[in-house]
Amino acid sequence: MKLFLDSAIVKDILPRVKSGLISGVTTNPTLIKKSGRDPLDVYRELSHDVSDISMEVVAQDLPQFIDESLKLSDYFGDIATIKVPCTDIGLKTCKYLANRGIRVNVTLVFSSSQAILAALAGATYVSPFVGRMDDNSLNGLGLIADISNIFQKHKVDTQILAASIRDTQSVARAFGLGANICTIPVKVFDGMSQHVLTDKGLDQFDHDYMASVKN
Ligand code: G3P
Fold first, then answer.
1. Which of the residues 70, 93, 99, 142 has an alpha carbon 20 to 30 A from that of 121?
2. Helix residue ranges, H only, the chain
3. pTM, whole model, 2 decimals?
4. Residue nearest atom 8 in ligand 1 by C-alpha distance
């Protein structure tokens, strides 16, 4: 069970990574755009503190996909997880990279059949988009359960990386249904430690402690 941060804002990521509770970071072109930074600058800054960064490749054809992936992998080494879309070219790229021992995250997954192909292509991670399925009246967490059943039955090594998670309850439910990793926005990570009864209990304990300390 691991948590990744789904963000490209270095100043938000680093303090939370230092908590020791975060095992990786996932980025995508939209998150990079929101950061206002060049993707390579974001990866470089994170690379000192984060040991697993999903870096999405955007390309037009297979040779370009492979070329861009290898450039990232050569430059960042084992820190780089190459992120490719679950398309025909993306899966071919995945197979090529996996055969060379490079970690691949197959992203934009919305069905069990896509997850099966990603696993057969040797993906390290398959990323079903829970929130975007729910946005489209599909059962995002149901897909996590379906993929988990298939992977367990067939002893598949590919890890389920639940993505597009927008609330703390979905994190717990995704893990409960068999996700290996949840990648979450910093707001969701921060929310995970919060509980109104914790705050209330702590106020009482603080008050009682002060009342019982003699000196
Ligand atoms: O990393 C991809 C995924 O987590 C995107 O989430 O909220 O844009 O659907 P969202």
1. 142
2. 10-17, 29-35, 39-46, 62-76, 88-99, 112-120, 130-135, 140-153, 168-176, 186-192, 196-212
3. 0.96
4. 164
